[in-house]
Amino acid sequence: MNSVIGTVARRAYSTRSYIPPNLGAAVKSATPKAESSGGDLSGLVDFYKRIPKGAAEATKPSGLLARYRAKYWEGENASFTPFIHAMLLVGAIHIGLHYKHHQDTHADGEHH
């Protein structure tokens, strides 16, 4: 009994990977009853003609980090520049903290 249920379950789900989930529902809703009984297929042909063809259009990145990533990290534009930017940022933070600490410890101006 279990082998029969397993076989039925495998057959039921084996063809699911061939049809995208939304497309299956769209074909059912776009196909008139006359077409499903072997009649005129013009509605189904029209449905497939309306499906976009080719690669999807590239979306433009929005946001500061997304634009930075697209410019320096991804694709043919990948470069060493982000590492240099990170070093400059760490250096600027270090200089700022060092200057603040120096001003706090020598507030009286004894050594200057």
- Spell the H/E element sequence: HHHHHH
Mean pLDDT: 76
Structural class: mainly alpha
Taking Cα atoms only, what radius of gyration do you get, to the nearest Å? 32 Å
Cα distance, first to last residue?
A: 94 Å
The major beta sheet can be summarized as:
none
Helical content band: 55-70%
* Overall strand count: 0
Beta content comes to: under 5%
Q: What oligomeric arrangement do these chains adopt?
A: single chain
Query: What best-fitting shape do the alpha-carbon axes yield?
Result: elongated
Low-confidence stretches: none
Number of helices: 6
Organism: Basidiobolus ranarum
Protein name: ATP synthase f chain, mitochondrial
Pfam families: F1F0-ATPsyn_F (PF10791)
InterPro entries: ATP_synth_F0_fsu_mt_fun
Report on this structure.
- The protein has 6 helices and no strands.
- With about 110 residues, it is an all-alpha fold.
- The longest helix has 25 residues.
- The protein is elongated and about 100 Å long.
- The chain starts with a helix and ends in a 7-residue tail after the last helix.
- This is ATP synthase f chain, mitochondrial.
- InterPro entries: ATP_synth_F0_fsu_mt_fun.
